[in-house]
Each structure stands twice: as structure tokens, then as C-alpha cells.
Amino acid sequence: MPAGSVGIPAHLALGQAGEDAAADLLRRSGFRILERNWRSGGLELDIVCEQGDTLVFVEVKTRKAEGLANPEDALIPAKRRKLSKAIGLYLSARDLWDRSCRVDLVSVVHGPRGLSATRHEDVLDFSQDASGAAWQPW
């Protein structure tokens, strides 16, 4: 675990280390980090960044290598709905509805050799919301 994790519950320290690894991966890949852990009410966006002209919302999922579930399995329908709401609030708060955007996932696995981060591009399709209406006008 990273320095500074003393006194922090292990699962929170692992999650923070995973988000740090994800941010490092994104920077090395040419992304510009705009915000981390953006919150509105009970909703959160892990990382908001830019890749060229595209606004990218990055969900970070961290798991131990010996765990039963893969990080990618965590994007269940309820999480997708929360992400959709959080992204809508973020776009409204910043008046960014005209920006091209997408959602990426960075899965981080903590194994015997440390943390390994992998980016999965454009993991969620929000072209329609539950009512069938267009989610965003691009």
C-alpha cells in the first residue's frame, strides 16, 4: 500500500492507490486530468479528463488479484444509472453539453507485483436514457 495509508481501512487505501495508478496511466497516455473525485450530493465521478477535444469520464475499479470478481464486472445497471446522473450534473454545472464525451473504465488489479492498470475505452452507451430520449445532443 502507498505511504500515508496508515490508519485508513485497507479497502479505502487500496481504492485510493488504484485511483492514483489510473491517473498515472491516463497522464502517461496523454490525457489531461481536470478533476478527481468530483461529487454532487451522493454522486461521484472518479476522474474527469480530456483526450484531445473529447471530455472523458473515467470510472476506476480496483480489486485484489485473488478476488472473485473482475473490476469490469462492477459496471452493473445501477452503477450505470448513477454514472449517467453524475455526468449529466457535471455537464450542466459546467455548461459543457456541447462537448463530445465518452466514458472509459480503468481496471486496476493488485497482485503480487503491485498494481496493474488497464484502460477500456468507451465502455458505456448513453445514447438513450430509460425513456428512449436522446441522452446528449452529439
Please explain how this structure is put together:
It is a single chain. By secondary structure, the chain is an alpha+beta fold. The protein has a single domain (10-111), classed as Trna Endonuclease, Chain: A, domain 1. The chain is built from 2 helices and 5 strands. The protein has helices at 10-28, 77-94; strands at 32-40, 43-51, 54-64, 101-111, 114-120. It has a 5-stranded mixed sheet with strand order 1-2-3-4-5. The longest helix has 19 residues, at 10-28. The chain is globular, with a radius of gyration of 15 Å.
N- and C-termini, Cα separation? 41 Å
User: Main beta sheet: strand number and arrangement?
Assistant: 5 strands, mixed
- Helix content percent band: 25-40%
Indicate the radius of gyration in whole angstroms.
Answer: 15 Å
Number of helices: 2
* Strand line-up across the major sheet: 1-2-3-4-5
Poorly predicted ranges: 130-134
- Which structural category do the helix and sheet elements fall into? alpha+beta
Q: Identify the CATH architecture.
A: 3-Layer(aba) Sandwich
In terms of DSSP E residues, the strand content is 25-35%
How many β-strands, per DSSP?
A: 5
Mean pLDDT: 85
Protein name: UPF0102 protein Desaf_0502
GO molecular function: nucleic acid binding
Organism: Desulfocurvibacter africanus subsp. africanus str. Walvis Bay
InterPro entries: Restrct_endonuc-II-like, tRNA_endonuc-like_dom_sf, UPF0102_YraN-like
